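Class, look over these structure tokens:
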Amino acid sequence: MKIVYLAVAALALVLPAQALAGGTGGSAAAKPNSARLCNAQRTAMGAKDFAALYGVGPQHRNAFGRCVSALERAAQADQDNAAQACKAEQSDTTFPVNHGGKTFADWYGRNARKADAYGNCVSQKAHAAAAARQQATLTAAQSCKGERATNAAAFRTKYGTNKTKSNAFARCVAANRG
């Protein structure tokens, strides 16, 4: 019975360490870290605007958790879209023509046997989509900050849809993000 307890205790120590290191395999390595992206957004736009963008209600509560959840959903969609795009590229017979004569495996493969080509393709495409979304969010937030600074009352009237117009910043970012 002691062996079972020791095995469970060892597993309890290994799994969190593996999760922190991102060592759960190919799909985790391909997905960007949503918490890190949310931290970068909060730093870039300021805590007040970050809370206004992601928070719930007039007090803008749980902004960080909602940001992470939203970016996790988006990352999963990016992963799925990237997988479809890579499968299409992999089966495209004109791939070498469009990539300097290199095959799919040569273009994306990094190890000796080029067996990691598909995973690298998915990872590159998913990271590119996440980076584009991150940049679009930060650009839209900056634009909305400028518009709000010009005339705050007109800004709230233009974008706010709830009773207190407290959702104006989030609506503005969503409208300008594309």
